[in-house]
Design a protein that fits this description.
Distance between the termini: 23 Å
Helix content: 40-55%
Radius of gyration: 18 Å
Shape: globular
Strand content: 5-15%
Structural class: alpha/beta
Oligomer: single chain
CATH architecture: Alpha-Beta Barrel
Largest sheet: 8 strands, parallel, barrel
CATH topology: TIM Barrel
Number of domains: 1
Strand order of the largest sheet: 1-2-3-4-5-6-7-8
Length: 310
């Protein structure tokens, strides 16, 4: 695939344009397309994604170091863009793995409190000063991430905080990624393609460089699901849409869906967690390479599957 021409947001200071471009290059392996390794689920899903007694999830997955071992080996092979995790998790391990390109997830919440109990809200766990401290300690932080629950009664607080953090990150030459999920009592179906298209357009309006959205479960009338995601891609404009990896799937099914998202929908990448880290180390690293092949190199499903099975 040809590299995507970089767009430099107007709130990046002229003297930091090269820093911004270097961070964007690191996050996208120089292609403008992002293979994001999502490691924020230790808070988001607590331990549900990391331990099941060895039934489907390897016992090694319960140790947070597993995430950083995957990230380190995949980075050495040039097959991941960023490892996205909360500030605290990065700070606990990054001195051992300083060269991985990190995306600091600024906010998070667990899945325990359901919408019927309280409208979702997730506010920042750290500040840009904290992020800059990591950078000053030679940790390779290239950007920040933030989750917004579109449709929550608390939406305005998250929108306000995300907008200010995006602007502040750009002023430091960092890239920004939003996670935007329609969720709350006002949302009848968080996988509705029109709402997902609205979420991607919102990300552009608050200045995000990339946004992660869910893959719709149904398409618009007369359109397939990948074609319907293409509406969200268009709605996002100059914000690159990356799609959620979702729950664990058999490798061929997962890679087939990823190929559709990139080649039919026009997505600029994917954010993958469980389909990578719920595997032994070698298999997880090979899945990173398979995803990279589709997202960044234009590989077919068969070619990517061959990489995974090698």
């Amino acid at each position: 695939m040809e590299p995507i021409e970089a767009y430099i947001p107007a709130d990046v200071p002229d003297e930091l344009i090269e820093d911004f471009l270097e961070n964007l290059k690191a996050a996208t392996c120089g292609t403008g397309r992002m293979n994001l390794f999502a490691c924020d689920q230790k808070i988001e899903h607590l331990n549900d994604d990391f331990f099941d007694g060895g039934k489907k999830i390897p016992l090694t997955s319960n140790d947070p170091r597993h995430l950083f071992e995957i990230g380190s080996k995949a980075h050495e092979e040039g097959t991941i863009g960023v490892l996205a995790a909360q500030y605290g998790l990065i700070s606990r391990y990054a001195r051992d793995y300083p060269d991985i390109p990190y995306l600091v997830k600024m906010n998070s919440k667990s899945h325990l409190v359901k919408t019927k109990q309280k409208e979702p809200i997730s506010l920042s766990l750290c500040t840009m000063d904290d992020v800059n401290n990591l950078i000053l300690n030679d940790i390779n932080v290239v950007g920040i991430g933030y989750t917004i629950y579109l449709g929550s009664e608390n939406e305005s607080e998250m929108l306000s905080e995300a907008s200010m953090l995006i602007s502040e990150a750009h002023q430091h030459g960092l890239i920004t990624v939003t996670w935007i999920y329609p969720r709350g009592s006002a949302v009848p179906d968080e996988f509705d393609p029109q709402l997902i298209s609205g979420a991607s357009g919102l990300a552009c309006c608050i200045g995000a460089d990339f946004t992660k959205v869910n893959y719709p479960k149904e398409g618009f009338d007369g359109m397939t699901i990948p074609e319907s995601l293409g509406v969200a891609v268009q709605s996002a404009g100059r914000t690159g849409l990356i799609c959620s990896g979702g729950g664990s799937l058999p490798p061929e099914d997962f890679l087939s869906r990823l190929w559709d998202q990139v080649n039919v929908s026009g997505a600029r990448g994917a954010a993958t967690g469980r389909n990578i880290h719920q595997k032994p180390l070698d298999d997880a690293v090979k899945m990173c390479a398979a995803c990279h092949a589709i997202i960044c190199n234009g590989a077919s499903v068969d070619e990517a599957l061959a990489i995974y099975n090698s």
